[in-house]
Design a protein that fits this description.
By secondary structure, the chain is of the alpha/beta class. 40% of the residues lie in helices and 15% in strands. The protein contains 5 helices and 5 strands; from the N terminus they run αββαβαβαβα. The protein is globular, with a radius of gyration of 18 Å. The relative contact order is 0.13. The mean pLDDT is 95.
């Protein structure tokens, strides 16, 4: 196979990776925390969080999820958020706590949301207040 895209890589970017280096996405996040503790991990609308803050926030959110009754490791957590700082916190927090992520398009109609929640078997839905009307309309069918 001609790997033509390698010509576009900047100097120093490896052409191959060792897929056994990390056991999970959380291992990558924790390694980034160790290497880049005070560096900016994410920024949005002028607010920035460092890798250290991201680790703290994801651990706190993961612990919150683990405190919910009837939510067990492996259960599905649906995240219905746009591209905001809370998204990576929710995503990595849920993964850190051992849950499976179900990404939900915030622009779904109530019918589409009902279908995805039923199809995925999500036990928790995290959403932005802006989408509460859609969520409320979808609940009777979930």
């Amino acid at each position: 196979m001609d790997r033509f895209w390698l010509k576009s890589y900047q100097q120093g970017v490896p052409h191959d990776i060792d897929i056994d280096t990390y056991g999970s996405i959380i291992d990558i996040l924790d390694n980034s925390h160790e290497k880049f503790n005070q560096h900016i991990a994410f920024s949005n609308f002028g607010t920035r969080i460092t890798f250290a803050e991201l680790t703290q926030l994801t651990k706190a959110f993961g612990a919150y999820l683990q405190s919910l009754p009837d939510l067990n490791p492996g259960d599905r957590v649906a995240i219905m958020l746009p591209n905001i700082l809370q998204y990576p916190i929710a995503l990595f927090g849920a993964l850190r706590a051992g849950y499976t992520i179900v990404n939900v398009d915030p622009m779904y109609t109530p019918r589409e949301l009902s279908y995805q929640l039923n199809d995925s078997g999500a036990k928790v839905l995290l959403f932005l207040e802006n989408f509460a009307d859609t969520v409320e309309k979808s609940l009777p069918d979930t």
